[in-house]
Write a structure and sequence with these properties.
Radius of gyration: 21 Å
Number of strands: 11
Number of helices: 10
Order of helices and strands: HHEEHEEEEHEHHHEHEHEHE
Bound molecules: 2-(butylsulfanyl)adenosine
Number of domains: 2
Helix content: 25-40%
CATH architecture of the largest domain: 2-Layer Sandwich
CATH topology of the largest domain: D-amino Acid Aminotransferase, Chain A, domain 1
Strand content: 15-25%
CATH superfamily of the largest domain: DNA ligase/mRNA capping enzyme
CATH class of the largest domain: Alpha Beta
Strand order of the largest sheet: 2-11-10-3-9
Distance between the termini: 63 Å
Length: 324
């Protein structure tokens, strides 16, 4: 095989492996067996051994690479990662006063008596991260940190199967994706059992386990942890037009990102928001991961822009927290 044939075969294999990775980790719908995947992966590795120039940054072989770090570098977010205000659980004579006040303020600011459309998303209890894609390639991944500056943990994030190394075209020129890295309850129990068997200290809860896993200086350790991501928001977005939060989640999915669209509901007005909150309050124990509430977002992005943000949190979103 000459270099040109190798390059073409490698390109085909890499595309196939990216596709199967996406089917398995993002869509939960694998088309081939693990053994078939491994065979494709082995062929890719053999090609890269014979032609090392083929092992580029975004090759499926490069999820776990590089030597352990001494420390994490600080990295500034292009746009601040804001926090959320909370609406308390008030299922009594106050009749959810906080969320009703949130809705009233929004309608006052927008000068409307019409019900506002809100997108209700699950509030996952994990670790907030940002992924930057330039020309469709994952260039840097960071923790939220203080919202202005986080820690650069790209090498660790690259080991997470549900984080694409390359987006599916057509994709934006620049995209900052925000999401929550988390561990499912069953994975967490299995992982803690393993730690116990090895005589190592166990984690108190899945959130701590996810945070600890992302803070490993050796990406090979992170790669062994059962981490997943759900993407729910953006920072910069250059080169794509999106009208609503719901459309944004749909577009993110089309770019190959893992979103929680199935568990997301569009609510017309505050009463439907409260109904949605009650629905999840009753069903939280049936989910495979821990949630600590419902995040309510004004669906139209033009209205989000009109409402703006304080230095701490957007005016167009709020977290309805479950009682502890
Ligand atoms: S939106 C500007 N959506 O909750 C909007 N956050 O208390 C900011 N979180 O730091 C966040 N699920 O770590 C948003 N569907 C979701 C979320 C979510 C979990 C976390 C996130 C954020 C924290 C705010």
């Amino acid at each position: 095989m000459d270099a040109e044939q190798a390059r073409r075969r490698h390109q085909r294999l890499a595309a196939e492996l990216h596709r199967h990775n996406h089917l398995y980790h993002v869509l939960d719908a694998p088309e081939i067996s693990d053994a078939e995947y491994d065979a494709l992966f082995r062929e890719l590795l053999e090609l890269e051994t014979a032609f090392p120039e083929l092992a580029t940054e975004d090759s499926p072989s490069r999820r776990v690479g590089g030597a352990p770090l001494d420390a994490f570098r600080q990295a500034r977010h292009a746009l601040p990662m804001l926090s959320l205000d909370n609406a308390r659980h008030q299922e009594d004579e106050r009749d959810f006063a906080d969320i009703r006040e949130f809705d009233a303020r929004i309608r006052r600011l927008l000068e409307t008596d019409e019900p506002v459309d809100y997108l209700c998303e699950l509030k996952l209890d994990g670790v907030a991260v940002e992924l930057t894609y330039e020309a469709g390639r994952l260039s840097i991944g960071t923790t939220r940190g203080d919202g202005q500056t986080g820690e650069e943990i790209t090498a660790n994030l690259r080991t997470i199967g549900s984080i694409p190394l390359v987006l599916q075209p057509p994709c934006p020129e620049v995209l900052d994706v925000r999401g929550e890295v988390y561990i499912e309850l069953e994975d967490f129990r299995r992982f803690n059992r393993q730690l116990e068997e090895n005589g190592e200290p166990v984690f108190a809860n899945p959130r701590n386990a996810a945070a600890g896993s992302l803070r490993q200086l050796d990406p090979k350790q992170t790669a062994k942890r059962p981490l997943r991501i759900f993407c729910y928001g953006i920072g910069r977005l250059d080169g794509a037009e999106v009208a609503t939060q719901q459309q944004l989640l749909e577009r993110m999915r089309a770019w190959g990102l893992r979103t929680n669209l199935e568990q997301t509901r569009l609510a017309r007005g505050v009463d439907e928001v409260i109904a949605c909150y009650r629905h999840w309050l009753g069903r939280r124990d049936h989910l495979p991961y821990e949630i600590d509430g419902v995040v309510v977002k004004v669906n139209r992005l033009d209205l989000q822009r009109r409402l703006g943000a304080t230095t701490r949190a957007p005016r167009w979103a709020i977290a309805m927290k479950f009682p502890p």
